[in-house]
Amino acid sequence: MKALLQSTLSTTLGLFYPEVCALCQDEPAAAEGGFVGTKCRQFVQLVRPPFCQRCGLPFQGDLTTSFECNNCHDMELFFTYARAAAVAKTVVLDAIHHFKYSRALWFENFLAGLLLGEAVPVLRGQNWNFIVPVPLHPLKQREREFNQAEFLAGQLSRAARVPLNTKLLRRVKVTVTQTLLRRDQRAVNMRGAFAIRDGVKLNGEKIVLVDDVFTTGATTNDCARALRVAGAGEVCVWTVARGL
Ligand SMILES: [Zn+2]
Ligand SMILES: [Zn+2]
What we know:
- It is a single chain.
- The chain is of the alpha/beta class.
- The chain has nine helices and six strands.
- It has helices spanning 2-16, 38-41, 70-74, 90-101, 108-124, 138-144, 148-160, 183-190, 218-229; strands spanning 81-87, 130-133, 169-171, 194-196, 206-214, 234-242.
- Helix 5 packs across helix 7 (148-160).
- The structure holds zinc ion (2 copies).
- Residues 21, 23-24, 26-27, 37, 39-40 line the site of one zinc ion.
């Protein structure tokens, strides 16, 4: 049903939107690729080693041994690892902003494509029980009418064949926007922002958390905290993009 809906959506979008790149309006692009053409895709910077094995922060240089960055040493982290598909810059950041704040839903396939390309090969080789999107606060969700993380998590769930679970976590605190906050302020702002739904019991489950962007990790870390406190055995994080 979801696949049918999606193909209907693509067809409908194809009727209303000419098949040109939605970012530069200057090259052909198709619905399957989220209306982003090859020229614009050249600006995508995929996250490649070396990067911090804990938080996925890319690192300049020839380091071949595994390492943890200074930020990770200073933080109490509740996830085993966080990885992102691409660096949150240029076309990737533009597409995320349009997708999230201007309801430019046609970018979903572009963003999901990046995430799936990097995450599916890794997740298939591991043993995960659920994919859980970072939830929005109900007030935010009503205002935005969709949760971008849930769209991305749904596509990842189907491709990686790990069940989607949108019933575990909820956002209990309306937080101020993180954009203007420093790293330490972000952690304080997010503390206690997420909780497990009443009546949910976990028993060592391994959970993949999905969000659009990872910046300092304050959001995903608080989700991971709530899941671990409730009994999750392990939490990892996958996002489309990674702030530097
Ligand atoms: Zn373009
Ligand atoms: Zn790190």
